[in-house]
Amino acid sequence: MADFPSKVNTETSSPHSYGSEQGGNSLRGLVGNITTMMDVYFAQSIPAILMMIEIFLGMLHWALIASTDYTALPVYGWVMFVAVTTWILTTILYLLILCGVHRRLTFVPWPITVMLYYGIAVVLYLTAFLANAATVNAFPIRFYNYAAAASFFGAMVTLAYGTSAFLSYLEWKGDGGNAATSTVPT
Fold it and tell me: How much is the pTM?
């Protein structure tokens, strides 16, 4: 039988942990771990700010549509589908890049994936915006303002997606400029 070593380290955490004595939880340690997982440089970049604008305006767009009687016109089913789907996908994409998941998924060609996503999102949002704008007058007066505001914010989201598509095209092409304007940090 092998001899048991005379000195055994039974410590369950590193000596530099932020936890308190006796295994207590530390909020400072939790915040430290979360911020090391997040890409702070991406959060301050132009593409990240555009994504936050797309998320905010997209949420406002579909909330305004949901405030109307959108089931009365079948075309608003398409508008609502595009608004909610792109909002969810943009939120997921933002969180993936912010948390650095794109660095761990190296088999995904991120610059072209992001460029294709934004290209498709622009086309879909343009059709949804045009359908929204063309049918604003079909609503009764009590829903007219909601539909008109939704049309305006649909145009703003379309422009934001178009700008993101252009920046991601430049990133894919290689003319993205410095690292601060990169769509997906490498």
Answer: 0.73
User: Within 13 Å, how many C-alpha atoms sit on residue 143's CB side?
Assistant: 19
42, pLDDT greater than 90 = no
- Whether 161 has a pLDDT exceeding 60, the answer reads yes
φ, ψ of residue 24 to 5 degrees: the values are -75, 160
Which residue has 């995904």 as its token pair?
Answer: 108
pLDDT of residue 138: 84
DSSP string, the chain: -PPPPS------S-TT--PPGGG---HHHHHHHHHHHS-HHHHTSHHHHHHHHHHHHHHHHHHHHHTS-GGGSTHHHHHHHHHHHHHHHHHHHHHHHHTTHHHH-TTS-HHHHHHHHHHHHHHHHHHHHHHHHHTGGGS-HHHHHHHHHHHHHHHHHHHHHHHHHHHHHHHHHT---SGGG-SS--
State the DSSP string of 113-147. Answer: HHHHHHHHHHHHHHHHHHHHHHTGGGS-HHHHHHH
